[in-house]
Design brief:
Elements (H helix, E strand, L loop, with lengths): L28 H10 L7 E2 L11 E21 L4 E15 L1 E9 L3 E9 L6 E20 L2 E5 L16 E21 L2 E3 L4 E6 L6
Parallel strand pairs: 1-2
Antiparallel strand pairs: 2-3, 2-4, 2-8, 3-6, 4-5, 5-10, 6-8, 6-9, 7-8
Length: 211
């Protein structure tokens, strides 16, 4: 997920916008994104529920387990300064994430790659989020959904308050979701609240991505 880079003055560096909260997407995201590429869903894609303009930079999220209650998903377009990015938006009303990791690798002149990594919930209580919204383009893991509807009109989704798509858009929702061995690539994440017990933020030279 790379977009146009910001200009830098000699001797200065700047991190691109980085979301420090994270959320997984449904295993069926691949089907949604495939339909987007083919043009089948393009007309029904809405603007992301995330209100901010994205940098376009891709970052990784991983967790041993995500346990969520209230789940919705539909196709959106993230807005960048110069580009738009088709994504699968996933919303979870309440989520616990065990052994959570988020990382982004940024290239800098002279020093090369630098990794910014955040971890939480590695021991003791898990990270917890309310009304999480993530726009992602890649998802891997072992998923279980309870009472799932696939193909529901995105404008009628009710699992997460205020998170709905465009009329006629492809959507899905479930009462609960559990994803083990979560591996996800995303461009934007937002949350009403996000608790990160035992948070550790590190900056290291080289590639030290979550996976």
């Amino acid at each position: 997920m790379q977009s146009a880079s910001h200009a830098r003055l000699p001797g200065r560096t700047r991190w691109k916008r980085l979301a420090l909260v994270m959320l997984p997407t449904l295993a069926l995201s691949a089907a949604v994104l495939s339909a987007t590429v083919s043009g089948a869903l393009a007309a029904s894609f809405g603007v992301s529920a995330n209100s901010f303009v994205v940098s376009g930079e891709s970052f990784q999220i991983s967790a041993d387990t995500l346990d969520g209650h209230g789940f919705v998903q539909y196709g959106v377009l993230d807005r960048g300064k110069q580009d738009t990015y088709p994504e699968a938006l996933s919303g979870i009303r309440s989520a616990d994430l065990y052994n959570l990791c988020q990382s982004v690798v940024q290239d800098f002149p002279v020093v090369g790659g630098v990794t910014l990594k955040l971890t939480s919930g590695t021991s003791g209580p898990p990270a917890h989020a309310d009304r999480l919204v993530v726009d992602a383009h890649d998802l891997r893991g072992d998923a279980v959904f309870q009472n799932i509807n696939i193909g529901q009109d995105a404008s009628t989704l009710e699992g997460v308050s205020g998170v709905q798509g465009s009329p006629g858009g492809f959507g899905e929702q479930a009462d609960s979701v559990r994803i083990d061995h979560l591996r996800q690539g995303t461009r934007s994440v937002s949350a009403a609240t996000f608790r990160l017990p035992g948070m550790h933020l590190s900056v290291q030279a080289g590639d030290h991505s979550c996976y």
